[in-house]
Amino acid sequence: MPHPILKSDIPQTGRYRKAMVFALALLCATKIVAAQDTPLLSGGVAFFHSTSGGSTDFTPVIEPLLAAPIGQHLFIESRATLLETWLPKGNGQSGDDHIHFIGLNYLSGDFLINRHLTLVAGSYLVPFASYNERLSPIWINNFQDTPLIASLGVNTGTGLGGMARGSVVSHEKYSVDYTAFYSTRSNNLQFPADREFGGRVNLYLPVQRLEVGFSYDRVLQGVHENFYGVHVWWEPKDTALRLRSEFTSGQHADGYWVEADYRLQRFGGPDSVIGRFEPVFRMQQTFRRDNVASDGLLPVDVQRADFAIDYNLPHNTRILTSYGRQFASTGDHNVWETGIVYRFLFPAWRAKDK
To answer: What are 229-259's pLDDT values in tens digits?
Structure first.
């Protein structure tokens, strides 16, 4: 199950345990400081199966998320990943390899000044394009794997430093919001990050239910590189259709993905047997400019088409099934994926009556 934050080498579990202990201590401190504000524990539990090019792997995964308000202006948020993967041994060896991963995806504090400005400090998801921040959680994504360009412009997926975000203007017919960030370089196994800065501006038209965003990211370490991104989301009114897309351009490669999904709720409603089906189609391509593979993409041009039929069970449970065909000069292969995901949400403790 590819994921932007899991592209680095698997670190030692001991340091990850320390980070998880720190997160739990933070949760306890939150309870003491502001018992009147109830933190929420959310996230997803999933079991994924994937067969790509004849190689099959199995991955159970848990992604818990903490959202903890402290008073009226401070907000702590964090997400972690705990997974186990069984995959065949390479080089003609028989048997399976076993890989485990335990770690925080991010841990940050948000200080809400007003509706125009929120300051964020700590480890955060890089706000480049739309996928990394909004579609990477396992309980949201329609596919279990990330787009081909997921690492283009975000690298490790996280930044370490500060961020400012908020609404520039908001009207009935349109709204504009922004995000600006700066990240320092970090070789910490728990919070890897590049030295970079960038930002994103989104325009949303409520009547048309259309969002267009523009992103920029500049890497300030090693060979300095610029990345540009555009995303377009459209949900036509009075339909169950959703269209989402991204285009990203880097120094050495470009790429895009376009995804359309349609919930069959017109056939008896969203809770009917047929209405729970959700066909999905995703088309994506990457284009190499040179052979410098510093962006996490394959060193050749790649085309891929994915077809999925997801089924939305009661109680926030989804079954994901998909078939994809990838075309590249290094060889074509099929990608078969199945999985089941459960979304959970509950308060960390019972709120006191006021």
So the answer is: 999 999 999 899 999 999 999 989 999 999 9
Residue 326: partners with Cβ closer than 8 Å, 6 or more residues away: 302, 303, 304, 332, 333, 334, 335
Terminal-residue alpha carbon distance, the chain: 45
In angstroms and rounded to an integer, the radius of gyration of the C-alpha atoms of the chain is 21
SS3 14: helix
Backbone angles phi, psi at 20, to 5 degrees: -65, -40
Shortest CA distance to 48 belongs to which of 16, 99, 85?
85
Closest Cα partner for 312 from 281, 271, 284?
A: 271
Encode pLDDT of 114-156 as tens digits. Answer: 989 999 999 999 999 999 999 999 999 999 999 999 989 888 8
Residue with more model confidence, 198 or 191: 198
Amino acid of residue 198 = G
Helical residues (DSSP H) of 125-239, grouped into ranges: 131-134
Residue 328 CA from chain centroid, whole number: 25
Residues 6+ apart with CB under 8 A from 230: 129, 212, 213, 214, 215, 246, 247, 248
Rounded to whole angstroms, the Cα distance separating 156 from 192 reads: 7
Written as six digits, the tokens of 166 are: 């908020």
169-175 — which CB contacts under 8 Å span 24+ positions? Answer: 170/115, 172/206, 173/205, 173/206, 173/207, 174/203, 174/204, 174/205, 174/206, 175/203, 175/204, 175/206
Contact in structure between 103 and 16 (CB atoms under 8 Å)? yes
* CB-CB contact of 35 with 352 (8 Å): yes
Name, in order, each residue with C-beta under 8 angstroms of 100's C-beta and a sequence gap of 6 or more.
10, 13, 83, 84, 85
C-alpha distance from residue 142 to each of 51, 69, 215, 279, 345 (Å):
17, 29, 23, 10, 19
Name the helix (H) or strand (E) containing 18.
helix 13-33
